[in-house]
Amino acid sequence: MSSNPAPQTTGSRLLLVRHAKAVPKGDPAGDFERALGERGRADAPLTGRWLAENGYKPDLALCSPSRRTRQTWQLLVPALADPPDAVYDERLYDAAPNALVTVLAERGAGLGCLALVGHNTGIHELATALCGSGPEELLEQLRDGFPTSGVVVVDLAGGWEDLAPGRGRLTALWAPAH
């Protein structure tokens, strides 16, 4: 699951990152405190490397404050040449697409590229709702799922005002191979 990125010309770019593989549900710590599992700790740095090698440079990272999303971000950051600040917003924890859009619209003003580290099912639902165009093969892969440690790159030609169903273009889709 891969594609070469297209250069961003105008508008805004959204990098949707699903947190890396966590320990199984049912851990006594509770869902919010679930940590990354062994595979997640191995995959998250690969996600950072992919972002860096393909020239994706977010101006800001928005991250759910759950333990597994914080760990995912912290493990992918070392691969980035100039990592952005991260904002941990409680509204992103296990959020529905409309809540994600609210936070993105608030935080995106004046920025060209945002990264969002979040959870399924909300992040997958947001990606599929936004992506009204793009290579058919990538759109089909996206409909099939959003793997852990995966990245969906969505370009919004009209900027953050285009953060609406069908207005985004799926530019790239990547996940670690297993």
Offer a concise description of the structure.
With 178 residues, the chain is an alpha/beta fold. It has five helices and seven strands; from the N terminus they run βαβαβαβαβαββ.
Strand order of the largest sheet: 3-2-4-1-6-7-5
Contiguous low-pLDDT stretches (5 residues minimum) are none
User: What fraction, in percent, of the residue positions are helical?
Assistant: 25-40%
Average predicted confidence as pLDDT: 93
Overall 3D form = globular
State which percent range the strand residues make up: 15-25%
- Give the ordered list of helices and strands: EHEHEHEHEHEE
Task: Report the biggest beta sheet as strand number plus sense, adding barrel if it closes.
Answer: 7 strands, mixed
How many helical elements?
A: 5
| Class from helix and strand fractions | alpha/beta
| Count of β-strands | 7
Euclidean distance between termini CA atoms = 11 Å
How big is the Rg?
15 Å
